[in-house]
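Practice problem 4.
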């Protein structure tokens, strides 16, 4: 019965991680959108000021506000990807427990 309880616990953990993935995915999408909007606004501003397009992108990305937005995006992406990996690890644990449970109950017949 311990394997069964452990399997049920892992399934609860998986449900929690999946719900969390929705939030972290949304946070990542918002951070990405925010970065892209700020970057495009800065690029338009630099172009209007007469900066050559060839260097405007590098200059814009070096601005503190843009760099912070990019950092935020990268951080949110890392959290999102870590959550995906956690889900995959829990799914693997569930599969292992399920196989162990099947072997025990299969031998009981």
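Answer key:
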């Amino acid at each position: 019965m311990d394997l069964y309880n452990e399997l049920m616990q892992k399934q609860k953990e998986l449900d929690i991680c999946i719900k969390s993935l929705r939030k972290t995915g949304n946070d990542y999408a918002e951070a990405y959108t925010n970065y892209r909007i700020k970057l495009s606004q800065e690029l338009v501003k630099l172009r209007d000021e007469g900066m050559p397009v060839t260097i405007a992108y590098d200059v814009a990305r070096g601005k503190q506000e843009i760099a912070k937005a990019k950092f935020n995006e990268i951080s949110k992406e890392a959290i999102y990807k870590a959550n995906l990996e956690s889900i995959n690890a829990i799914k693997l644990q569930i599969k292992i427990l399920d196989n162990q449970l099947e072997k025990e109950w299969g031998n009981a017949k």
